[in-house]
Amino acid sequence: MRLTPFHTRTSELCDVYNWSLWCNWLLADMYAPDHIQEYFAIRTACAVFDVSPIPKYHIHGPDAVQFLNRIVTQDVLHCAVGQVLYTPWCDDDGKIMDDGILARLDGHSFRLTAGDPWLYWLEDNTVGLDVVIEDVTELGVLALQGPNSRHLLKTLTDTDLDQLRYFHILKTELAGIPVEVSRTGYTGDLGYEIWVEPPQAVQLWDVLFEAGEAYQLIPFGDYALEMARIEAGLLLADVDFYSSKKVVYEFEKSSPLELGLGWSVKLDKEYFIGKKALQQEHARFPSWGTMGLEVDLNSLETIYAGFGMPLYLPHGAWNEAVPVYSGGHQIGKATSGMWSPILKKYIAIARLKPQFTRPGTHVDMEVTIDAQHKLAQATVVKMPFFDPARKKSLGQD
Amino acid sequence: MNSLTKNYDAIIIGGGHNGLTAAAYLAKAGRRVLVLEQRHLVGGAAITEEIYPGFKYTVYSYVVSLLPPRIIQELQLPKHGLHVMPIEGAFTPMEDGNYIASYSDEDDTLAEIRRHSKRDADIFPVFNNMMYDLARAVKPILTMIPPDPANPGLEGLRTLRDLGGHLKSLGKEKFHWLTKIMTMSAYDFLREWFETDVLIATQAQIGVIGTFLGPKSPGTAYVLLHYYMGELDGASSTWGSQRGGTGGVSEAIAGAARSFGAEILCNAPVKQVIIKNGQAIGIALENGDEIVGKTIVSGCDPKVTFRTLVDEKELPSDLVDAIDKFKYRGSSGKVNLALDGLPTFPAMKDKALIRGMQEICPSVDYLERAYDDAKYGGFSKRPFLGCIIPSTVDPTMAPPGKHVMSIFVQYASYDMPAHGDRDQQRVAFGNAVIDSLVEFAPNIKNLILHKQVITPWDIEQTVGITEGNISHGELMLDQLFFMRPIPGWAKYRTPVQNYYQCGSGTHPGGGITGTPGRMAAAEILKDGN
After folding, report:
1. What is the pLDDT of residues B325-375, one digit of tens each?
2. Is A389 a member of any domain?
């Protein structure tokens, strides 16, 4: 088990000793007995998540662009310095291996994050290219998310953060500490990720929380993050899909096209691993589509009334897949879902057969009460469920 | 006025949250609706105002809990800005320096109670279960159109049959508890369960909110249950605060109403309802303009609805008499503070509780004495205070590092003691509130940048609610269900044809519930109007 560079601080604040592991790094699930306050801080004030465990690779050298364009589905040629791309990458069969964000730090220097460590895969694909790959996972990263995050950061730097655009990154100092600040995150809200060398990590935490007191800054854990990312319609590896390299059976694999990530697959670029398979899939139409579901509350209420119960709503996110039906036949599965306290809606992310992916389509989602399976009515909707203008807006907007 | 469409299907008098709710439902059903609000902003008693620059006050109301999920869904309120955050925990300091706290996590609450009494900690979950059960038993009644048992009619008979069946289904034990809770005082009821005085005080305090009764007055146990019916995101009896203050709830409902096509006109005080041949045909504004409408709906309290807006000769004398006897008796005031920093409660060991409620209610006797003080007029010298500091979770309320404190105060009576002067009384009342708070948070006096003090009389003057009762009339058993506001006229109708009532003075009563507005709209549509 490994401890992040912020552990001395996160462990002090984690009153409930509720931890889990991510790639063998210790990660707080929640800090207080109820994660809902953390969720609301993301949506109302601002909150910090220690995202340091995320695998990170510094990829540099004359052929870095060529190399990355071989690996990822996005077109790196069109990634400007200071820009950040979300991108999946696939195996030769066009099945998704993982996804992450790719930041162009310099002309020939990039940083790629991933859900799992992939050093062997990256290195194996450098054949014939002049590129260096360094595992820089040790780097500390804090995700500062929420409507107040920009106000807070601006108190710590003279750099014009108002003009830092969504999915862009810059180098700066926060209270004298050298950092990189990217306008990224996994919450679908206004937010930043701050990248710092481990020796300065604790100092960064302290200045952030000192300044954060006036901005109602609190730390948040994985439970609140799970809620925010579902509302944002962001998929989670090992929940909404599995890495093709980590599963055994074909049915467990999926393509980015099936996951609704087609926008990040640039089929018109010269080459990338899995391109051929994805081109074929694109031509014949993917076998699955990924959409949002909104569960009908009246229908759910009726089901609970049958048990003499009032409407019950989940307190937090669930991530055990449940079947989705139409006319009594299974047509897909909902892979994660939640009651959204902001939207006042019961929402879920679902993988559906293509003929059921049109928004407005009525389907049934399984709910289990007292080990009895029941069907609640649901409507297919587009994602994201929650998409505030502030997510992408510039400062002073 | 020329911009107004001349002919409306429905004109709503009063842009309080219930008037807006009725407007939204009527507009959603395709009616052409106009809402007339006397003030410059909608919301009535549920408003946010920036009285002191940079600081937002939830001026009159302070928490949200009773707004039903159904209304939130049907009007799609989140789309229009509804954003209610649960208030995490409550903290009650005691006079000996100790305290009791409650949390959304039951185990944490029990650990707190256990510090005071192991017995009470063990029985608390059983008590909570029973209250939850009883609230569930009563809840369906809140959305029933109240039948008059003396003259039910066919539909009323059906409702009474449903009600009887429902009560029977509760089982013997629950029915007995229900009877007890309907008739007992909060104190007596709680004393049957608990031995810890401060625990009883924290519960009994809920039973007196919005009434001019003490914790030992019969009828207050029901009020306790009334507030147990609140819910937030499926968690029962949870209080919440709206982002940007409760005015945001009214704004969201107004936004929904507008999205369905309703027009809302502010600065448009209504003088009276125009009645011809026993039929309402329009309204006259105070500026002399007249607007024609097929249906007129009053969101005002019963006195304004029946005695101010309508000429006495249009109404049966027994109704006039009953309305005149309806009890308003505003009992609570409000103090809003702009603070230079966070107050410190020396007794507060868990600092996170500053984000919850702070309740100045250290003992049952404190609460009962507060009532004693005020029942002859004036206010409590040491009042019960329900405080929240919404800026601890919501940065939109105050500048960075600064805070607003919203203090619900009970008791403050509408009546003045002999030889009183309204302005002097207000100052003295504000001082009593701050002095009572200082006993438990000594540094607060030095933090106050601005103070807004509101007495029931002020509420009447500004919002127009008779005697400043936030519930449009006391929540007492003799003024509930088929007797709200008065027997025979509890179904949102009035003796004047096409004239309806939809305020908190109708069933099921006060709080930011929207339910009277929704049910009134349903009845209006049922009548084909």
Report:
1. 999 999 999 999 999 999 999 999 999 999 999 999 999 999 999 999 998
2. no
Residue B24, pLDDT score? 98
User: For B301-342, what is the HEC assignment?
Assistant: CHHHHHHHCCCHHHCCHHHHHHHHHCCCCCCEEEEEEEECCC
Residues B242-265 have pLDDT tens digits of: 999 999 999 999 999 999 999 999
Domain that holds residue B310: 7-46+69-84+245-327+471-526
Looking at the fold, whether B278 and B332 belong to one and the same domain comes out as no
Nearest partner of B496 among B324, B327, B320, judged by Cα: B320
Confidence of residue B207 (pLDDT cuts 50, 70, 90): very high
Q: Helices B172-183 and B153-169: crossing angle, nearest 10°?
A: 110
* Predicted confidence (pLDDT) at residue B65 exceeds the cutoff of 80: no
Exposed / middle / buried, residue A97 (Cβ in 10 Å: 0-12, 13-18, 19+):
buried
Cβ-proximal residues to B358 (8 Å cutoff; 6+ apart), any chain? B90, B91, B92, B93, B345, B385, B387, B388, B389, B440, B441
* Verdict on whether the full-model pTM lies above 0.90: yes
Residue that is written with structure tokens 């601890």 in the block: B392
- Minimal Cβ distance to A216: which of B73, B78, B395: B395
How do residues A204-262 score in pLDDT, each as one tens digit?
Answer: 999 999 999 999 999 999 999 999 999 999 999 999 999 999 999 999 999 999 999 99
Q: What is the spatial distance between Cα A264 and Cα A283, in angstroms, rounded to a whole number?
A: 17
Do B281 and B390 reside in the same domain of the chain? no
Angle between helices A36-44 and A222-231 (to 10 degrees): 50
Q: Check CB contact under 8 Å for B88 and A345.
A: no
- Domain assignment present for residue A237? The answer is no
Regarding whether A157 and A20 lie in a shared domain, the answer is yes
Asked whether residue B260 falls in the same domain as residue B349, the answer is no
Asked if residue B95 lies in contact with residue B362, where contact means CB atoms within 8 angstroms, the answer is yes
In a domain, residue A248? The reply is no
B89 lies in some domain: no
Residues 81-140 of B with CB under 8 A from A: 82-86, 88, 103-105, 107-108, 136, 139
Average of per-residue pLDDT values in chain A: 96
How many domains does chain B contain in total? 3
Please tell me whether residues B127 and B156 are part of one structural domain. Answer: yes
Q: Is the ipTM of this complex over 0.90?
A: no
B89 contact residues in A (CB cutoff 8 A): none
pLDDT of residue B290: 95
Asked if the C-beta of A166 comes within 8 angstroms of chain B's C-beta atoms, the answer is no
Best interface-test mutation with A: which of B76, B77, B82, B85 has the largest number of A CBs within 10 A?
B85
Q: Tell me the per-residue pLDDT of B149-163, one tens digit each, with 9 for 90 and over.
A: 888 888 888 888 888
Residue B3 has pLDDT above 70, yes or no: no
CATH code (residue B255): 3.50.50.60
pLDDT at residue B143, rounded to an integer: 85
A289-295 and A345-352 strand pairing: antiparallel
Same domain, A293 and A368: yes
Kindly tell me if the per-residue pLDDT of B2 is higher than 60. no
CATH code of the domain in which A266 resides? 3.30.70.1400
Q: How far apart are CA A354 and CA A154, in angstroms?
A: 46
- Whether residue A131 contacts residue A77, with contact meaning beta carbons closer than 8 Å, is answered with no
In chain A, residues with a C-beta closer than 8 Å to the C-beta of B395 are 44-46, 147-148, 151, 215-216
Q: Which residues in chain B (60-79) have CB-CB distances under 8 A to chain A? A: 69, 72-73, 77-78
Q: Are residues A159 and A47 in the same domain?
A: yes
pLDDT recorded at residue B46: 94
Task: Say if residue A130 is in the same domain as residue A141.
Answer: no
CB-CB: which of B73, B108, B393 is closest to A44? B393
Residue-range definition of the domain harbouring residue A376: 289-381
Residue A386 lies in a domain: no
| Half-sphere exposure (Cβ direction) of B366: Cα atoms closer than 13 Å | 23
